[in-house]
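Example 3.2
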Amino acid sequence: MSAQWARAGRWLTWLIAAILLAVHGLLIVIGAGGLVELAVDKPPWTPFSNPELPGWMLLLQWLLMLTAGAVFIAGSAMRLRALPHLMAGIYAVMAAVCALQTFTMLSNADRFTNMAIEYAEYAVILVYLYAAPPMKARFGVQSAAESTADAAA
């Protein structure tokens, strides 16, 4: 029975990783599309940029999305040990931008719910990157206790 659980765990790990890669690929597509919307008067699709946000904020938002997607995908492919830390930093900046937009620029009734969902998504991804055993093994992430024990040895 334990072999079946191990197999299921490996399958689930690959499924979650594939979903995260797809999500971050989508961030690249959306970020690139947003930049196109800033550059041309009439993009060949229905614009998805929020008209409540000024151009400088949209530029920042699209560049952050491109960065998050590219860093996650490249870092995953290269097994970059710093990936969880880089993503924590990028998500922190994205969360700050989200807060700025939510509290000072947006007026829709569900803006605070959307902000909470966005923050939860960042937290779930980071917990997975930092705490899931396959991700810890892939990126060499250690807990503070493990780092202290290694330093003492």
